[in-house]
């Protein structure tokens, strides 16, 4: 059965960066979702005008509660309103969960390589959280690219990820003092090559279109098979 529109009430908003927000909604009879899926959000103005945008789910299924990541886009029609103006307690319409390809489930035993650019961390964070909640022993490596330290989403949570998930944060414009890697665009040396003796990891890549195309080419050059690379892009 195709997902239908349902009411969802905003119950919490938390800042992640100067323009990035976590929005938590309560929606009755939520059917559950898999890490990596997304939803459509529909807003309706007083005059009947409607706008629909897609947003990634940032956490594993948790009853009727869902968590979205919203990056406010300058000049955007929907994201600035959702990020900062939608009142807590207000309702929107949500359709989902959507997507079945860009998905990781704890039952999978493939090693996982996650590569995120900016707010592209959101669906990958759902995978990291699901991995931790399941106490999975599957190797999981997150490579997270941001312009500068102020743009890191989920900073405290990633810093406390523990040994089960290897987290590498790369800075493209400004690195923090003491960083072992100077600021610069992600390159081949920043990505692990697949283990020649085993099954290549399942790669999940999410971020702006230019970033995804660049990193996708790097992964191929590093020897990752195309059929093991799953991408999601925006912008």
Key attributes of the depicted protein:
single chain, about 240 residues, alpha/beta, Elongation Factor Tu (Ef-tu), domain 3, Rossmann fold, 2 domains, six-stranded antiparallel sheet, five-stranded parallel sheet, 4 helices, 11 strands
Topology summary:
Blueprint: E1 5-15, E2 20-26, E3 38-44, E4 50-56, E5 65-71, H1 79-85, E6 91-98, E7 112-117, H2 121-133, E8 140-146, H3 155-159, E9 165-171, E10 202-208, H4 209-221, E11 229-234
Parallel strand pairs: 7-8, 7-10, 8-9, 10-11
Antiparallel strand pairs: 1-2, 1-6, 2-5, 3-4, 3-6
Q: What does the model show?
A:
Strands 4-3-6-1-2-5 form a 6-stranded antiparallel sheet. The mean pLDDT is 94. The chain starts with a strand and ends with a strand. The longest helix has 13 residues, at 121-133. The protein is built from 4 helices and 11 strands. The chain has 2 domains: 5-98, Elongation Factor Tu (Ef-tu), domain 3; 112-234, Rossmann fold (3-Layer(aba) Sandwich). It is an alpha/beta fold and 235 residues long. The radius of gyration is 18 Å and the shape is globular.
């Amino acid at each position: 059965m195709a997902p239908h529109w349902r009411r969802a009430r905003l119950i919490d908003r938390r800042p992640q960066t100067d323009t990035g927000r976590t929005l938590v909604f309560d929606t009755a009879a939520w059917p559950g979702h898999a890490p990596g899926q997304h939803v459509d959000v529909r807003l309706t103005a007083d005059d009947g005008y409607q706008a629909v945008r897609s947003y990634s789910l940032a956490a594993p299924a948790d009853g009727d509660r869902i968590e979205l990541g919203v990056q406010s886009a300058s000049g955007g029609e929907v994201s600035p309103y959702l990020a900062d103006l939608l009142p807590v307690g207000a309702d929107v319409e949500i359709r989902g969960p959507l997507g079945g390809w860009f998905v990781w489930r704890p039952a999978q035993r493939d090693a996982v390589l996650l590569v995120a650019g900016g707010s592209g961390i959101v669906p990958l964070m759902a995978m990291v959280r699901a991995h931790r909640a399941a106490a999975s022993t599957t190797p999981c490596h997150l490579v997270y690219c941001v312009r500068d330290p102020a743009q890191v989403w989920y900073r405290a949570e990633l810093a406390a990820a523990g040994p089960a998930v290897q987290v590498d944060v790369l800075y493209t414009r400004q690195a923090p003092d003491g960083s072992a890697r100077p600021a610069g665009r992600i390159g081949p040396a920043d990505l692990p090559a697949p283990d020649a003796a085993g099954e290549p990891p399942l790669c999940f890549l999410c971020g702006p279109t230019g970033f995804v195309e660049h990193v996708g080419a790097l992964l191929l050059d590093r020897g990752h098979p195309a059929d093991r690379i799953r991408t999601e892009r925006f912008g």
